Amino acid sequence: MENFKNDVEIKLVALDMDGTLLNNKGQVSEENRKAIKAAKDKGIIVVLSTGRSILTVREHADDLELTSYLVTVNGSEIYDEKRNLVERNLVDTAHIEWMLELSKLHKTRFWAINTERTWHNEMPEDFHKLDWLKFGFTIDDDATRELVFNELTARGEFELTNSTLKNIEVNAAGINKARGLALVCSRLGIEMKNVMAVGDSRNDLMMIKEAGLGVAMGNAQDVVKEAADWITSTNEEDGVAKAIHKWVLPD
Fold first, then answer.
1. For 20-40, what is each residue's pLDDT tens digit?
2. Which residues are identified as catalytic?
3. Where are the beta strands (DSSP E) in the chain?
4. What number of other Cβ atoms are within 10 A of residue 142's Cβ?
5. How far is the C-alpha of 246 from the C-alpha of 251, rounded, in Å?
6. Taking the complete model, does pTM exceed 0.85, yes or no?
7. How many Cα atoms sit within 13 Å of 83 on the Cβ side?
8. How far is it, in rounded angstroms, from Cα 156 to Cα 179?
């Protein structure tokens, strides 16, 4: 991993949040905060690229004084510098209904994000009238999780990832963080080769593969580490700050 030659200038840093930017208490460490400020002061664009919705991303972006794009819900929604919606990619309501039945059949926990809020293990009666961005299954049993994953895969209509080893995240087909970042880059006049993407889970895999420099956290899933150009420290050890200092900031 240390053999990676960064001969391309990094102009944009894309950061996953949970398990990456945030520590296990859901906070941004002082070292990460200082590194992000230093990158911004150098003119680097810092973009949060997360599975979270705008409802819980906005507060962190504001706290870090980020005035850049936000890639939320794994790319289902993209927001510009003024927090205006640029693009929205919905999961068909009929697919939501089918996944609810699948969850009941296999007795799994679930969550679902619409444009207004996140629902956990319950759904509104009028869910057909709402716009849905993502559906997720939380399944402790490996065999059951594999069964559900295979049923989802067989439909051929979804983008399947995860944010922990125990869950499955479902977006509309073709919707992922890499696609969201590509849209952001096109609007900013930046190429993906000028992006450093940092993450820990399967929902970060595509952006880590497609960025010029893909960085896996020390606590990342093995498949993410294998795809990355470099592995930093864990989210409890200021891994984001270390990646920024190594690849973005001058010595």
1. 999 999 999 999 999 999 999
2. 16
3. 12-15, 45-49, 70-72, 77-79, 85-88, 109-114, 118-120, 132-138, 158-161, 167-172, 195-199, 213-216, 230-231
4. 10
5. 8
6. yes
7. 12
8. 18
